[in-house]
Amino acid sequence: MPLVGAVDQGTSSTRFMVFDETGGVVASAQRAHAQYLPKPGWVEHDAAEILTNTWTVINEALTSAGLSARDLAAVGISNQRETLVVWDPITGQPLHHAIVWQDTRTAGIVERLGNGDPDRFRAATGLPLSTYFSGPKATWLFDHVEGLRARGESGRALLGTIDSWLLWNLTGGPDGGRHATDVTNASRTLMMDLATLDWIPELVAAMGVPPAMLPEILPSIGRLGAGIGPLDGVPISGILGDQQAALFGQGCHAAGEAKNTYGTGCFLLMHTGAAAVPSTHGMLTTVAVQVAGQPPTYALEGSVAMAGATVQWLRDELGIIDDAAEVEALARSVDDNGDVYLVPAFAGLFAPHWRSDARGAVVGLTQFANRGHLARAALEATAFQTRDLIDAMRADSGVVLTELRVDGGMVVNDLLMQFQADVLGVDVVRPVVAETTALGAAYAAGLAEGVWSDLSDLRVNWCEGWRWRPSMGPEERSRLTARWSQAVERTLGWV
Predict the structure, then answer these.
(1) For residue 223, what pLDDT is reported?
(2) What angle do CA 20, 441, 448 make, to 5 degrees?
(3) Which residues have C-beta within 8 Å of that of residue 482, sequence separation ≥ 6?
(4) Residue 196 forms part of a structural domain
(5) Distance between CA atoms of 429 and 490, rounded to whole angstroms?
(6) Of 73, 114, 117, 298, which shows the fewest CB atoms inside 10 Å?
């Protein structure tokens, strides 16, 4: 039976998973990496640590299942998308900590690039100017890493998102590693043309990036190179940004199909087919996937910065829980939110608001409020933010969702998922295999190498694991969402 591996490199950890041709999990290993927060709003990762962890989990997963490179037909890569790395191609060493997608240090650069118009680049890239995306992070690095621009111009520095960093290292590193990215990751840089799928010279210049530093842009599905070390000779044949990978792994291959991933952040994607649908309601237009030799397909996306990260804040900064898994029981200790609303705009608000001047707030506090109400408000915030995204997506596309497929670490929280169904008024559906990001990367690689013939094979593999049906009446739904909107308004204009 052919097996396919997937590197799933996320914001909090790196995982390697092996799947069989039915999409079943054969092996898995995972390692967390450190989060560096040197200043308020700054978030960094050590790319060298991420690479070490990647090799470690590959070895651990293969060893645990008694497998070797010979057993793998292909390997795919999924990754945290907008996080940016610069490195020396001779030594293979990073030249600065990776700047993470959540990082807001580029607010001034973004304002300068926009010159009063945050949608200045949207027509070509599908994106508003925001600290979220990779291009302004590159600008900051050139402004603050001595000699980086000169190194880049002379071939002594490379730049890329995490997929590029991993692909280069997994295919040889300083000894012939391939410097490339795929269209889904490139579409998150503010430098790629959605129509041509190539770098836009004017925007590359606006970010101050020497073109020689940039990776080659390739289709998501197609052979990219051959692995080394524990992946010796294995075709690396698929790359997808993590959210596009989850969309693919959820079997959302047709226009109007949507999924939401509940991880560190929250990411709602709806497939729009061959059309790149422009947004006038704060959503992002992005590439969904491209098979080598075929035109790309596109998606609308809404991104929320704080989802699981809000629960981590309750644990790490407030200390009201000792483990993230405790949040559901604490939230269930009260009957409702007690009219308490937590808006986790800790780094501003992403879609559909795009307000970098927003900051977090807890509103509605009385002496009646307790730890349980705060825990419940934290969970409900994720559901309310998702409702905001779906409302905006419907306004852009005219598509009314009949169900929402969900995945990610938070979908084990039954209280959250039931509230999500209630506040949306539609069914929420979790698949049997909830790790759809890794699965999507594996599917991409396996399709390229003939493990699966076409998309219909993948659709057959998708199986419903659990379904939550709405039980809340429309009046209560309207009351709660109106209160949430009031709370959001109170976070704006703080900075």
Answers:
(1) 97
(2) 80
(3) none
(4) yes
(5) 33
(6) 117
Residue-wise DSSP of 37-106: --STT--EE-HHHHHHHHHHHHHHHHHHTT--GGGEEEEEEEE-SS-EEEE-TTT--BSSPEEPTT--TT
Nearest CA to 230 among 70, 40, 383?
A: 70
Element (H, E) at 404: strand 403-407
Does pTM surpass 0.85? yes
Rounded to whole angstroms, the Cα distance separating 420 from 493 reads 28
Reference 210, options 150, 258, 164; nearest CA is 150
Tally Cβ neighbours within 10 Å of residue 478.
Answer: 10
- State the Cα–Cα distance between residues 138 and 159, nearest whole angstrom: 8
276 in a structural domain: no
Statement: residue 171 has pLDDT above 90: yes
- pLDDT band for 355, please (50, 70, 90 cuts): confident
| Segment holding 7, helix H or strand E | strand 3-9
Residue 1 pLDDT more than 80?
Answer: no
Q: In the 8-state DSSP scheme, what is residue 199?
A: B
Question: Residue 362: which H helix or E strand, with range?
Answer: strand 361-363
Question: 36: domain CATH number?
Answer: 3.30.420.40
Tally of structural domains, the chain: 1
Q: What is the pLDDT of residues 19-51, one digit of tens each?
A: 999 999 999 999 999 999 999 889 999 999 999
CA distance 144 to 151: 13
Return the pLDDT at 347. Answer: 79
Residue 197 lies in a domain: yes
Q: Give the Cα separation of 124 and 126 in Å (integer).
A: 6
CA distances from 63 to 29, 58, 68, 69, 155 (A): 10, 8, 7, 11, 38
Scanning the structure block, which residue is given the tokens 């703080």?
494
DSSP, collapsed to helix, strand or coil, labels residue 191 as coil
CB 248 within 8 A of CB 289: yes
How many CB atoms are located within 10 Å of the residue 459 CB? 12
Residue-level pLDDT at 190: 97
User: CA 200 from chain center: how many Å?
Assistant: 23
What separation in angstroms does the CA of 376 have from each of 70, 114, 251, 312, 415? 48, 38, 31, 14, 9
CA 409 to chain centre: 13
- % of the chain exceeding 70 in pLDDT: 100
Range(s) of the domain holding residue 75:
3-243
CB atoms within 10 A of CB 39: 10
Work out the average pLDDT over 262-273. Answer: 90
User: Does residue 454 sit within a domain?
Assistant: no
